[in-house]
Design goal:
By secondary structure, the protein is an all-alpha fold. It has 9 helices and 2 strands, in the order ααααββααααα. The chain has one domain. Helix 2 packs antiparallel against helix 7, helix 5 packs antiparallel against helix 6 and helix 5 packs parallel to helix 7.
Length: 355
Amino acid sequence: MVASSFDPSHVDLDTVDPAEVICYLNASENDYNGHLGARISSIFVILIISTAATLFPVVAKRVRFIRIPLYVYLFARYFGTGVIIATAFIHLLDPAYSEIGPDTCVGMTGHWADYSWPPAIVLASITVIFLMDFAAELYVEAKYGVLKEDGTSVFVQHSNGEAGTQQQRQPALPENPKFAWQVNEEDSMMTERSFRQQIAAFLILEFGIIFHSVIIGLNLGVVGDEFATLYPVLVFHQSFEGLGIGARMSAIPFKRSSWLPWILCLAYGLTTPIAIAIGLGVRTTYNPNSNTANIVAGVLDSISAGILIYSGLVELLARDFLFDPCRTKDRRRLAFMVLSMLLGAGIMALLGKWA
């Protein structure tokens, strides 16, 4: 620590190293101040509420006897999109700057002072995710074939999340069972292709959010006086993120017998409570303001920010609103989708004032 020999009572402003001042001001010990019962309750409250929020869109889409109005489903889906985008910029990128940015103790010492690392890590993360996404696209195209323009069926994903087929200049088909089998086989291949593309993008998205959930869970377990404010804010924070994850997952054409959606929902719901429990286990020794903790949190926040920026802007906004060939033509529905997205981004950005 640069500030180890720093004496705040005798400072020459003309010669003092600014890094010494910043490191002294940022230095602190473990802040844990009790409230163990409330902290333990947070494990179960966040587990139940965030898991329920994550499961809601999936249940609404997959359980036939539950009749969820279309606009309720659309609200959950596009509100969640806004939440994910705001999380990337407000809850990940900004904290990364406060942990390892140029004006922090870490960012002013050692090789961390050689460069502004948060945007560099975000750029590297976006680049890696793009290359992975592109490689997956090429692999799926090579395995399942490229969409044809000769009048055969093309698999599409409607803006309300319903899977189906759209006919392109479909000629009259002869009553030929063999031909019909070929068409069904192609539809099946297109469905599989779409599924693999979407599940790859979704797993990247959930991976980025889980990184973030681990960090905030640890902090909630050990934070000091801010606990009273942070606890209720994180309940909403995790619920909104869960709603976004569940809404995006509900649009993926899983087989109805697949257990994967439920497993992925549970994985998100368990991450923060487990991290809180770990934080409670080290509550008297872990210092979230130490250089090591700041470096780990700053790097992970930067990586997660890059993942969510790419996923939110490319996989969600651009794909749904700009490049979806079956985007609804209903202006009223489109306006509702956009307003839901803006509301999600706005509320999640507001939560950034406290967490």
